[in-house]
Structures are given as C-alpha cells and as structure tokens.
Amino acid sequence: MVLISNAYTQNFETIMISQNSIAPIQVEVIDFDLDTLDDIIVMGQQELVLYENIGNALFTKHIILDSLSQLRNFYLFDWDGDGDYDIFVTAYSATVNTSFWLENLGNINFVHHIIDQTIPEPSYIKAIDLDRDNDNDILISSKYTQELYWLVNDGLGNFSIDTIGGSVNNFEIADLNGDNDWDIIFGKAYVSLQTWSEVRAFQNDGSNNFSMITLKTGFGIIHEIIIDDIDEDGFFDIIVPDYNSNNIRWLKNNGSYDFSTSVTIVTNFNGVTGVAVKDVNQDGKKDIIAGAFTTQQIRYFEGQGVNSTTSFSSGTTVATGLNSITDLAIGNFDGQNNLDFVHLDRGLDLISIWLNNGSQTFIQNILAESFDSPRYFDMGDLNGDGLNDFAAVSNGNNIVAWFENLGNNLFKQHKLHTNYTAPYQILIEDLNGDGHLDIICGSNGLNRVDWWENDGNGNFIQQTITTNHRMVRNFVVKDFNLDGHLDVAVQGYSTSTTTGNKGVYIYYNNGSQSFSSQLI
To answer: Quick one: average pLDDT of 53-81?
Structure first.
C-alpha cells in the first residue's frame, strides 16, 4: 500500500469500514448494544446502518432501515425507559412527510411507530421531557416552514402540536442559565447569501413559554452548533462552525444568556462542516476535530489551559485531499486510553474510522475507499500469514489495490496506486523469485505495465516493466525462454506500441527484473 506519514500532534490510522453506503449524511458514535464498545450508526439517504464494534476496531454491519428513499435525520434516546437506545427518524419526499421512532427490542430488532405525518418536510428531530412533567416530548423542525414544532406528550403517548417559533433548521437543547429548565439553541435558518445568520435561542421562562432571543450575530451559513462546557465553568458554551465565513467560533457563556465573548478558533477553513468536541488525548481538556468540505481537510485543535485560560491550538492537519466531508464523530473504537473518530465522505460513499495510537503524532494510513467497476482480481498469500489475500483493479476509480485477509471474512484494502488509468488485468506471481508473491498490472490509459515488489510482509514498491505499450489489455506471466525467470507477454487493444510497432510482445526478464521486448 501507499503509506503517507506526516508529523502532526496525534497519531491516527484510517480504517475503512464501509463503502458504497448510499451518500452518508449523518454519523453518531455510542455504545448502542451496551457491551462497553463504541458502535457507529450512519444514515444515508436510503438506509440507516449500525456498525457493531466487535472489538479491536473491527465492525459488523447491520442494516436497521432501508425501506425509505429520503431519510433526513436521526436521534438516539431511551424513549420507553427500558435501558436501551431507541431511534427517532425524519423522512420526506415529494409525496411523503413522516416522523417515526424505532423501538429497540434488543438483539438489533426494532418495531416501527409513527409519530407524525402532518409536519411538512420534517428535518431535525429530538426527544426530551421538555416541560419536565415526567413524560417525554418530541421536537421537530421543518425545512419547508422553518418552524420548530413541539409535540407535547399527554402521558399516554398522544401528542398535541405546538409551534415554538420560526427560522429554525438544526437545533440543540440545553439549560443555558442554570435555572433548571430547557432552552433551545439554533442557528437562524439559511435564506440566501445576502442574509447573514445569527445564533439564537428560545428562552424558557420556567413555565415552558418560549421567547426568541439573539445570542450572537455576524455569521454566514450555520449548518450545526455544538453545545458543551468548554472552559468547565458550569455553563454551556456554543461552538459555531460557519460554512460561509470559513471559520469556527467559540461563544463563551457567562450564565445570563450573555455570549458577547467570542473566540475565533480557526479562519480560512473553507466550507467547515462536521465538528466534534471531546477530550481526544485524555488530558482533561476539551479538543476539537473538524472537517472542511471545500478545502477537503480534517484538522485537530488541541485544548490548552484551564478555566479562564482555556484556549485551542492553531490546529494540525489530520488529512488532506478528501472528497466531500459531510459529518464526523468522536469515540473509542479500539479500547485504548485515547479517543478515535469516524468521518463520512458523501462524494466517495465511504465511512472511515481513524484510530489514535496515543503517541501525539498523526499517521495517515489510507486503507480504502469506494471501489467502483472492479474489472479483474487474483488471489494469493501476500503477507505470509497463511491466509489468501486478493489483489484487484478498479476501472471506475483507476485504483490498484490488494485486500488483506484478516480472517472471519474480514478484509482491509491497501491502495498501491490511485491514478492508474483504466487498469484491465492484475496477476499475482513471484516475479523476482525471492519467495514472495508480487503483483503485476497493466494500464490501458497510461500505456504501461508495472509490477509491485513484495518484501514478504505485504509492503510493496512499484517497479516498471514497460512504459510504451499502447492500450494494454491482457498479459500472461510465464518463463517463455526457459531461463528460470518469469517473463511477461502483453497484448494491447490496438496490437501496437506507442512507436507504431504492431503485435503482441514478450518482455523477457534477465533475472534482475530488467526487461527487453520482442515482437511475436
């Protein structure tokens, strides 16, 4: 594989746990099955999936829901008080508006319950005992009306709908001033580039009457807000990623709905989306991991100082060159004394977890991505562990890769080349006779044939056989001249080399893996 190492301030390894996940849009990390291991729940537009952590950062996929075509948002909450997490979901299309909850029966079995089918284009949903009357209520925002609706529970599971207020998209719930009632915090719904957004709240007067107040102005587009007590002063602060202004700001709460103190954590982080806050390095301070859709980066911001001196580092880059980051979440996937994270890439339809090795250096280890139009594969034990691995080419993604067999039908993908245009065939052979299986592949688009020399442990170095064989399609590896060395016979689609010579060529191996060609 191609290992890209960079000296940063935490050490993570990327592990692909899914591909082709139908445009993933939301991810949450929680110990869903209550076995002390953090699991991952992902929503795509057409499916809701649980990735059950079975230990050592290995996951089993369970499809919870795949019957609706336009899923929008989900929320985890123990609705019936039986000790496990139920799932609340919104979905809408041109003909359907529905909000429902999935009752968790255990063993990943669920019962579907309709909540409402009248709120147009239900977007975000949360469950909480908003009026503190000992039965749980539901809050739903509508993309169509931009209103926030409170479904008041009468204690028997019957709901009446009250409208709390407007200009709401995503929202959070917290007690901002410590008066033991719930306030609702949100970014003013985006209207146009000419309309600046604000951070607002519906302030609870203690009798569950809500009035809208503005907490902070001067934002562009707010897709999400994060509520946490960043400086540990007993009051919930607000982290605001501004997608349009390309920054992340920390609004400090003084306990009286006063967020006038604002700290800019990062600027020029274009298209910031997907932000999570937790103590990643377990030093007692809150850290931030954030993604940027436009600059295609993920960065880590380490928390520094304590209480009134709390601040964040300027940020170190975890990954670059990503495609379409849509969300990320932090959790502990390998049971070590540090936190890992998972990120979604909607453009590549992938879900990747990043394992933290705790050495305060980030190591980016890209193991997989969507593998479209696989054209050819071959099998063999590539790392000497006694298990058959396989190598394959993706004509859609122009990828050459090998898949490491971990046992129990689990495989890791290792990329050898990510821009090997139009590969058609791949073979596994010990080309240099050192006892280790190598990989041979040809590129139709690049007019070349290469081989990847294996050190016996699954580490490969690319070597060249030829760079001027026009439109490589098929090839055969065999000792054609019986000199004890494997040669390569190559046929191109147009049966000509780039110099115009027509025919099928044998590339003879001189024993030092230097190849001379002969037309046959």
So the answer is: 87
What is the spatial distance between Cα 110 and Cα 307, in angstroms, rounded to a whole number? 44
- Nearest to residue 91, comparing CAs of 63, 70, 107? 70
The predicted pLDDT at position 502 comes to 55
What average pLDDT does this structure show over 458-464? 96
* DSSP helix/strand/coil, 307: helix
Best CA proximity match to 425, nearest among 477, 389, 463: 477
Where residue 215 falls (left for φ over 0; alpha for ψ -120 to 50; beta otherwise) is alpha
The region, left, alpha or beta by phi > 0 then psi within -120 to 50, assigned to residue 117 is: alpha
What is the three-class DSSP state of 104? strand
State pTM to two decimals.
0.74
Contact 141, 148 (CB under 8 A): yes
Q: Which residue has the higher pLDDT, 91 or 54?
A: 91
How far apart are the C-alpha atoms of 453 and 450, rounded to whole Å?
A: 10
Cα R_g (the chain), whole angstroms: 27
**Fold topology of 170-322:** Neuraminidase (2.120.10)
Write down the domain spans for the chain.
Answer: 24-165, 170-322
* Confidence at residue 86, expressed as pLDDT on a 0 to 100 scale: 98
β-sheet bridge partners, residue 138? 127, 151
- Label residue 101 exposed, middle or buried (CB < 10 Å: 0-12, 13-18, 19+): buried
Over range 336-364, report the average pLDDT.
77
Q: Any idea what the Cα angle at residue 256 is, between residues 255 and 262, rounded to 5°?
A: 75
- How confident is the model at residue 503, as a pLDDT? 65
Task: Quote the CATH superfamily of domain 24-165.
Answer: YVTN repeat-like/Quinoprotein amine dehydrogenase (2.130.10.10)
Residue 388's alpha-carbon distances to 60, 380, 384, 433, 457, in angstroms, are 21, 5, 9, 19, 13
